[in-house]
Amino acid sequence: MQKDIFYEELEELLYSKGITENNDIDFLNDLENHGYLNLYSAYKKILNIDSDTPINTKDLKFIYTFDFDLQSLVFKYLIQFEISLKERLNYIMCTKFGYAEHEYLAKANYNTSGKFNVENTINNALLKIRYDEYPIKHYINKGKLVPPWLFLKHIPFGNVQQLYKILKSEEKSSVVNHFISNHSPLTIDLKKEFFDNSLEYIRHYRNVIAHANRFINHNISSDKGNKKPFLKHYFSESILTEYEFNTNLCRNDVNGLFFLIIILTPSKLLRERFIFELDLLIRQYYEADEGKKIMHISKIPENIVDRLSELNNLTH
What own/partner pairs with CB < 8 Å and gap ≥ 24 does 103-109 have? Predict the structure, then answer.
């Protein structure tokens, strides 16, 4: 009974803020399962509650559900990028540094003259490993050496990002050229700058999703966003115009993250799968009755799938 009173009070609080009731859904149940913060507070800054078209409880559920579905879709491709990045580092460690921990983590293999402390970076990664978890536990129990692929499997994305940063120039070039096509007309220095920036972009949105924060209409800070010197090579009427970029489309928003998934995914199958699944999701929500009223809030262009298809054809 106390629980019902608590959520009924939250529902009344919503109505006092201009949200209207829609009897098609059991919003009390939604509040109980998703919370006031996730259903309303996360979106109140982007909802035009005082407009001529009132926002109702079904609209709140709609935007929350769309956001959740979009996050779920994007997250699995960010995880796939993480897997690919770890495998690229594993390849470098195995072929150039050695299979034993004292070999592939030796300071001499890394750029000790850069702005990042090599020893601290390596130690921070080692501290993140939980040696009581499989499969690394099996190697430890058997007295086996921990190979690079196992070390990388057990450390978070942020530490993998830092390991990339301490690589020497030649190894960084190897990583970057794997993800950004060698036949691209861009210089290696520009590719490296873009890749460094992309890692931070991806890490930021990965954390947004992991902590169940609002994803749609969320912006990364401008200094960490996509930079024009790289993306201008893809400016066109069908992909992204310079005017659109200057007004922040794909500069530091989720659309920019979609672009990164296409540019940085070497697998043709995965790129096409992402476009296909995003198309299904976007059409499902745009074609819903609430979609006509709500989807513009996401600031995702209705033709985003066409743009990504063109980008896919151009970059690979």
Answer: 104/148, 104/151, 105/151, 109/168
- Tell me how far apart the alpha carbons of residues 298 and 37 are, in angstroms, rounded to a whole number: 18
How many CA atoms does the CB half-sphere of 256 hold within 13 Å? Answer: 33
How confident is the model over 109-142, as pLDDT tens digits? Answer: 999 998 899 999 999 999 998 877 888 888 887 7
Q: What share of the chain is helix, strand, coil (3-state, %, to 5)?
A: 65, 0, 35
Contact 254, 218 (CB under 8 A): yes
Give the mean pLDDT of 26-44: 90
Residues 255 and 258: their CA atoms lie apart, in Å, by 5
DSSP result, 179-197: HS-TTSSS-HHHHHHHHHH
Q: String of b and e for 85-117 (b: at least 16 CB within 10 Å)?
A: bbebbbebbeeebbeeeebbbeeebbbeeeeee
pLDDT of 157-202, one tens digit each? Answer: 999 999 999 999 999 999 999 999 766 678 999 999 999 999 999 9
pLDDT grade for 47, boundaries at 50, 70 and 90:
confident
Instruction: List Cα–Cα distances, 83 to 152, 153, 189, 286, in angstroms.
Output: 9, 8, 24, 32
135 preceded by cis ω (within 30°)?
yes
Spatial separation of the C-alpha atoms in residues 277 and 124, rounded to whole Å: 37
Sequence-distant (6+) residues with CB within 8 A of 214 are: 42, 43, 46, 67, 208
The residue among 183, 312, 289, 202 whose CA lies nearest residue 254 is 202
Full-prediction pTM beyond 0.70? yes
- Give domain limits for the chain: 2-41, 63-315
Helix (H) or strand (E) holding 316: none
pLDDT at 16 over 50: yes
